[in-house]
Amino acid sequence: MSPRGARHRPGGTGAGERDLGAQVRRGVALYNAGHFWQAHEALEVVWRQSVAPERSLWQGLIQAAAAMLHRDRGNRHGLLAQGRAAIERLRAPAPAAFPVETARFLQGLAACVEAGGPVPPMTLHIGAAGTRGRRPTKDA
Question: At the N or C end, where does the chain have fewer CB atoms within 10 A?
Fold first, then answer.
C-alpha cells in the first residue's frame, strides 16, 4: 500500500503501542534511519495526544519528516513547502520537558531545506519521554 493510503488505515503504524515515550523513541529512530514516512506516522501518534504548546512542535517534527521524504524523492517543491512549514513551527521555544532537542535540529533543517545541506539528525534529551536517563542519541 502506498504511504498515502497507509495513513488512513486503522492502526496503520504504532497500533497497540500506548507508551508515548516508546513512540517518541521509535519515531526518532525511524527518522534517523532514513525511514521518513514511518517516522512521520510514529510521531503523528504522539502529536494526536499532545496539547499546546508541544502540539505545534510535534507537528513541526512531522512536517520535517515529510520534507525529508520529499527530498529523497527529488521533489524540491515538497521539500521547500514542508520544510519551511516545519521551520516556522519549530521556531517556538520548546518547553523544558520536551523530549526532542529542537534548537540544533532547527539549524540543521534550515541548512538542509534552504541550502541543500545534509539531513539533520533528531536527538533526544537525557531522561526525556521515557528514555530512562539515556544519553541523547540519533537513533534512540
Answer: N
